[in-house]
């Protein structure tokens, strides 16, 4: 019988090394959290979008803000632009898949909102266009990418580049950082109320 223990150990070791490297991102993570807190304080909202595993991360993080992360507190305005199959299919079919996030940003984003585009390659055309549309709407834009960053990281106001070129490791960092940002938001809300 094949043993998968080496494969498992390799994943665990790579994950641990990647998370270890994250500690140098502490000041950046604090800046990202502060931007989100300032946005919510001003009555604005947080929009998330991405493809595949990153679509799941977008939904996960929007749910943390709307419902709760660790604490019972007031509901916070946040949306994942990855969930409405009628919008995604109509826009994809009529205007092209690269427009599916930009179109929703044009419909929903207000100046002062935070738009978070999640793309490990940093190259997904629909995430790039979503971030560009958010900039045009005077949102504060954030990119979550892997190490290389790509066009998404270049065009965003702030970029978190996970310290790994591996898609899975970058996604794990995105969710970890997303959870830290939710905890910062709840720490702010608890202080205020
Ligand atoms: O979750 C995974 C791989 O771990 C995949 O579903 C992955 O998210 C998809 O291939 C995405 O389409 C990749 O897009 P991106 O992160 O490069 O923007
Ligand atoms: Zn995945």
Quick tags:
single chain, 193 residues, alpha/beta, Rossmann fold, five-stranded parallel beta sheet, 12% strand, globular, binds D-altro-hept-2-ulose 7-phosphate, binds zinc ion
Helix count equals 8
Biggest sheet features: 5 strands, parallel
Ligand set: D-altro-hept-2-ulose 7-phosphate, zinc ion
Strand order of the largest sheet: 2-1-3-4-5
Structural class: alpha/beta
Beta-strand content: 5-15%
* Number of individual domains: 1
Strand-and-helix sequence, N→C?
A: HHEHEHHEHEHEH
In the predicted model, the low-confidence regions spanning at least 5 consecutive residues are: none
The geometry reads as globular
Span from first to last CA?
A: 58 Å
CATH domain class name: Alpha Beta
Overall pLDDT metric: 97
Gyration radius from CA atoms, angstroms:
17 Å
CATH fold type: Rossmann fold
Helix content percent band: 55-70%
CATH architecture group name: 3-Layer(aba) Sandwich
**Which homologous superfamily in CATH is the superfamily?**
Glucose-6-phosphate isomerase like protein, domain 1
- Overall number of strands: 5
InterPro entries: GmhA/DiaA, Phosphoheptose_Isoase, SIS_dom, SIS_dom_sf, SIS_GmhA/DiaA_subfam
Pfam family, one: SIS_2
Catalytic activity: 2 D-sedoheptulose 7-phosphate = D-glycero-alpha-D-manno-heptose 7-phosphate + D-glycero-beta-D-manno-heptose 7-phosphate
Cofactor: Zn(2+)
